[in-house]
Amino acid sequence: MAITRWDPFRELSTIQDRMNRLFQESYAGQDQELSTSAFAPPVDVYEDEHNIILKVEVPGIDEKDIDIRLENHTLVVRGERKFEKEEKEENYHRVERRYGTFVRSFSLPNTVDAENVRADYDKGVLKISLAKKAEAKPKQIKVNVGTGKQIEGKGAGRAA
Length: 160
Hints:
- The chain is elongated.
- It has a domain of 102 residues: Immunoglobulin-like (Sandwich).
- Helix content is 12%, strand content 33%.
- It contains 1 helix and 7 strands; from the N terminus they run αβββββββ.
- 7% of the residues are buried.
- By secondary structure, it is mostly beta strands.
- The strands form 2 sheets. It has a 4-stranded antiparallel β-sheet with strand order 1-2-7-6, with no helix packed on it. The chain has a 3-stranded antiparallel β-sheet with strand order 3-4-5, with no helix packed on it.
């Protein structure tokens, strides 16, 4: 049995995803035109003892079209996937990839070292590593066993 930390925002995110899918499915048949609508690339956020890491899926976007800013404990990632008309619109049967601009914002804890942020882009995945401040890193405390002294006090039980 695994114990997991309850995150109330995870359920909100799931509800938002379901609502977005519902609206996309209900309007999918009404507008057959090719358009460039905004999209939100998927993001994984995790942490280890030294960093908080975000992995953003942005395939087909040039690194020059990605803007990353950290301001007031908020990380903002902006970008644009441009629709390149290689073929005439009437030659397309279906367009499922999203095009246009996106903005993703993430509130960061005070434990992030704003001076030590790194962004790498490889194979369509943008990896942003945010280092934790030294005081925020976990410290291991050694537990000593059998070295404590016995304390005798009033009312201590005596063997009869």
